[in-house]
């Protein structure tokens, strides 16, 4: 039997975690769009100053950095530094067949940590609070990568 | 039979879409290199001001932002916000076995939308024009993620 | 037999390469954290100026760009422009079943090139030196993507 089948509970757990994380990444893009539109600020391109439905009252200051918009971009960037690595290593973690409880627990905690990270970052909590979910997510990915590496090198 | 086999037409469709999108990402890196070299601008590192084959007439203004070069970096960044998520969810979409016509149509449209997005962004079309292929690509990834999530939660 | 099994030597080679590259990405995040903490500079968020265990003597200049910290972010960004594409195409490369020597050689050289790239970038070597491992890694990913594309289009 193949490990990559919807009949493997850990693969299903991975599919659920990955789908939620993909929705997280894509949703952050729309938060940036929403914030640019609402604040009429934080635009990046000279052509975005053309008047039109998306920008009715353009002015040059719209190209200056806006913390309201940049915050969403920083969250997005932080996602991109963590989630694609999780998506890749999670798939391989399934292949090396850890105990189901371990695999599903790590994936669940990772997803929860990244969602909490976004809430904490969006609301501007202090650094130490933001660092906690970041650290949890990062340590899980590192653990999964080390587990895959050891399994691939020594236990096949 | 496993879904991840070159005998599964939807997996082959995914492989084609993914390969084109990977070439898109890598190509954008070389566009940035080309633009830096051609305009002798948009460099990022102090050591890039050392005279040599890649920079025959260095001067400090080369470290200032250049819209010609930054535009390629913004396109690249937009790719990184969308394409890795597609690559991950496309693979899982294959696993939940949607109708072939649906899967291959979504993947084809996604690839086309991202290539159009690059052309539109490179040529500096107005915001509303650029937003269209971005939206199409983003909605397809979101749909695929929702489809995987529902299939994994309810239909296995 | 499925290609995605720990009994396929090339899949094992991919798992090893992918795990190392995931550790590389995650490690760079911690290098940025280390550099921010050590130099007390390069912070990104207004709330990071709140006094606390992570920042005992806050001052507004901490929000200005610091090359020491930004260099780590640039390395990270370069990783994100190259490694996720490798992770996606490497998996598909396994599926089209190239000769083992070719697949494992390309993956090994890619991993080595990206690790050398980080060393060269971290130590601020001149542009031409940094461009070499970047080019090697990029060309390998492009070759793998072209190989997958041709195999998927013509040889199935």
E-strand count of chain A: 0
Radius of gyration of chain A: 20 Å
Low-confidence stretches of chain A: none
Major pleated sheet of chain A: none
> What is the residue-mean pLDDT of chain A, rounded to a whole number?
96
Report the portion of residues of chain A in β strands: under 5%
Q: Can you describe this structure?
A:
The structure is a homotrimer of 156-residue chains. In chain A, 46% of the residues are buried. Chain A is elongated, with a radius of gyration of 20 Å. Chain A has 156 residues and is mainly alpha-helical. Chain A has helices spanning 9-39, 67-95, 100-122, 127-154. Chains in contact: A-B, A-C, B-C.
How are the SSEs placed, and which strands pair?
The structure is a homotrimer of 156-residue chains.
Chain A: H1 9-39, H2 67-95, H3 100-122, H4 127-154
Output the keywords.
mainly alpha; 156 residues; 4 helices; 71% helix; homotrimer; elongated
Concise synopsis of the structure shown:
The structure is a homotrimer of 156-residue chains. Chain A is mainly alpha-helical. Chain A has helices spanning 9-39, 67-95, 100-122, 127-154.
């Amino acid at each position: 039997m193949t490990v990559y089948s919807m009949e493997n509970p850990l693969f299903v757990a991975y599919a659920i975690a990955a789908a939620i994380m993909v929705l997280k990444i894509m949703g952050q893009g729309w938060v940036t769009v929403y914030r640019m539109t609402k604040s009429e600020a934080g635009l990046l391109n000279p052509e975005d100053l053309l008047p039109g439905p998306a920008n009715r009252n353009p002015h040059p200051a719209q190209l200056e950095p806006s913390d309201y918009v940049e915050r969403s971009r920083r969250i997005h960037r932080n996602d991109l530094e963590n989630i694609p690595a999780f998506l890749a290593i999670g798939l391989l973690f399934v292949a090396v067949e850890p105990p189901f409880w371990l695999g599903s627990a790590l994936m669940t905690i990772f997803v929860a940590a990244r969602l909490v990270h976004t809430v904490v970052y969006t609301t501007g909590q202090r650094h130490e609070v933001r660092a906690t979910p970041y650290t949890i997510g990062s340590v899980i990915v590192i653990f999964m990568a080390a587990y895959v590496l050891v399994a691939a090198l020594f236990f096949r």
